[in-house]
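Researcher: Here's a chain I'd like modeled. Treat it as a single chain, no partners, no ligands.
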Amino acid sequence: MDKRVHILKNRENMGFASAANLVLPHISSEYLLFLNPDCLISPDTLARFVKVMDSHPQAGMAGGLVRNLDGSEQAACRRAVPTPWRTLVRICHLDKLFPNSKRCQNFELHRQPLPAHPIEVEGISGACMFVRRSALEIVGPMDEAYFLHCEDLDWFMRFRAQQLSILFIPDIEVVHVKGVCSHRQPIRVLWYKHRGMVRFYRKFFRDEYPLLLFWSVIVVVWVRFAILAMGILMRR
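Model: Modeled as a single isolated chain. Structure tokens:
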């Protein structure tokens, strides 16, 4: 094994944020790559990330074009922050009912044409986050209260609150074999995803929405979890 490689092995599953934060005291480089184990990257990916970030000093983190195995772009690759209202729009398909309404826009941007150059976005894929260490020291590590899912959304909000931009780089491609690490426990993963979303909403948006609307969204989130979990059980 290459002497530059150091492996920290946990005895139990600590969750994504906790496990990622565990390595921070052992790293001194200017940049850090947070990469899911089910991702594939090219040999020059790191060098290309560094080049773009060096030319955008205000950027706190960057992500690339994350594709599925079939070559299609993953929905979370570039996105707006899924606020409670945007989530309600998506779940209720209001963007399809009112396609010309600016207020009823989906938070996913992958259906839009790819930009020709790196652009600033509200969110990238949490499967591949290239982070500037000096920015991380300002913002702080990921919130370990999220076990799985939504810790990346939390981080995006905190980076942008510190005026640190998030870049989407279309010519850096990553293949993400989505779900390969979680297919054995789909309902458990689904539970963590929806619980994380509720925490995310309560942390950042609880005081920004009318109480009735806010809690209606929370109810919709859990109803969605129940429907999806029931679908998984029926298929089994």
